[in-house]
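Q: I'm writing a short explainer about glutamine--fructose-6-phosphate transaminase (isomerizing) for a general audience and would like to include a description of its predicted shape. Could you first generate the structure from this sequence?
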Amino acid sequence: MCGIFAYLNYNVNRERRHILQVLFNGLRRLEYRGYDSAGISIDDGDFSSFPRSSSDGSLSPPPLVFRQEGNIESLVKSVYQEVVATELNLEKSFTTHAGIAHTRWATHGEPAPRNSHPQTSGSGNDFLVVHNGVITNYEVLKETLVRHGFTFESETDTEVIPKLAKFVFDKANEEGDQTVTFSQVVLEVMRHLEGAYALIFKSRHYPNELIACKRGSPLLLGVKENDDVCNGSAFHDAKFLLQNSNPKELFLSSDANAIVEHTKKVLVIEDGEVVHLKEGTVSILKFNNDKGRNGGSRSARPASVQRALSTLEMEVEQINKGTYKHYMQKEIHEQPESLTTTLRGRLLRGGSWKAKTVLLGGLKDHLKTIRRSRRIVFIGCGTSYNAALAARPIMEELSGVPVTMEIASDLLDRQGLIYREDTVVFVSQSGETADTLLALEYALENGALCVGITNTVGSVIARNTHCGVHINAGCEIGVASTKAYTSQIAVMAMLALAIGADTISKQERREAIIDGLFDLPNKIREVLKLDQEMKDLAKLLIAEQSLLVFGRGYNYATALEGALKVKEVALMHSEGILAGEMKHGPLALVDENLPIVVIATRDACFRLVWFLRNYVILLLSTAWHRHLLISNSKQQSVIQQLRARKGRLIVMCSKGDAASVCPGGGCRVIEVPQVEDCLQPVVNIVPFQLLAYHLTVLRGYNVDQPRNLAKSVTTQ
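A: Of course. Here's the predicted structure. Afterward I'll give you a sentence or two in plain language.
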């Protein structure tokens, strides 16, 4: 849930002012990951004049640490105030410098400077750490360190890490091991940590060095060299020692967003890897915890790892707001383009004699296994769960395989049954959702075929599943997911098409869906024209405290997701309800004051009615009879019952159906374009996204950074 960032310039002159700006901008790019407090650490003096020397005991000055409650701009303001108060020279130039930064989403301890990162080993700032994740055994470690004389100032789980590093370092020196390296200290610390983490270490004992390591939480290394020496080359200790005179700038980040403006050459750090930045070199060691517990020592050097740089497939423009006021607004209006990118190269229309098909390269070798599955299990959290729920009916219809839904945390809590014959589909925008990752481990242990659907290339889910599909929705920075949701549904519809491609009886249905997918971006452009209408509706609802949303069939998921959007950004209580359950409790809430949205677009719930209408159309051709038959739909029954109780209704229907779903007026109607029933949730969610956005702005809340939330949920 937090964002960590580091910047090391080697043999590249940079003023302190520039170093601060790089760190601040890195945090701004990561602020969606947490924004209740932040902090940075930079050097007080030029560490190059203070090489570590155990023989004479020389030690570089303590690094400066700035921490502040609030968002990044609060930190920036406090830093420059302290710069003025202490007369810190911002023009001072550093040939080599290592700085670290952190933006926090509170898990242990309230938002406050003492709980902000970097966390320190003590008053001398001998070791500093920024951390994303949760250390599950921190209480045991804390008790041990307290017995050894350490005092704790924060309520965080992170503070045990730098103090443990100092304990390891001091103990090594007491034992006469005055040549203990930074990587040896960090490896020893890692042997004692349990939980999920991405860590960056900085120490005055090892000036101008940084060490990064991870387990579960994401971390990337970016490399910027003026002469592009390492373009396409592999990292290896010996190779990089030959290049230590090359000027370079190195970046560590939780996300590519903070790196792409500096370089596109990156390395995705794997679990268990320890990346040591020293004298312009990058050394990668593999941490082996089992070896350490079975008699390993600091003197036993871990195996070095050879890795290759990759190139980021993104542009700086993707992470800027452009002409929009907020990221959420931008991402809502980007959905025609994001869907086009999601579908590109995956839909094959063929000629007049060729069948229309879907090509998902990441799945083609596993489709036969999926078709033979005992069942298909969708696992996700929040918006990703809702997207999977929207796709469940078409998956069952086309595949002929039973489909079950699981919320990741609930599956883990009850240790739900997963069989070897199951195909388990993990849906996550970030690919790093903590509960979903634990569910993935659980499914792998049980021998199931695991499929990943993510928006993040190189994420943990993308790497650890047997196969999968990237949704290619583009960078999503607003905390409330919008374009990722619609792309997820589109991808899962294509997954259903691919699995059911061998069923001749469903050929016509599949081709109709493929045609609908081709036209889907245009339908989204059409529904986005409701922007002003939804803003007007938001003005009517601005003072309301609650909102109910009823849906069924494909649009039960739309009701859940629409209510979630309003809830998470507009801070209005809203509840998505299965319309068939209305009479089993929710009807008691209905009165003339409570606003209620009913989703009554043409979908599976209209299918029988439309069949009857077509069957008798030759005999009953008048508009009155057609209206009569439409009015027998299940959702129409819901509307009638709500109106009978003077419900304050807002009805979403297909274009041209306003008079049918709400005869005689008396309710507000939102008309949306009609598409294939399984794709209707993609269209129907857009008005809810617009409504949630405008409600939030009109209420004066931060739409991109809703209260108490963060984008990537990397803690349980």
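A: For your explainer, you could say: Residues 569 and 706 are 5 Å apart (CA to CA).
Q: Perfect, that's easy to follow.
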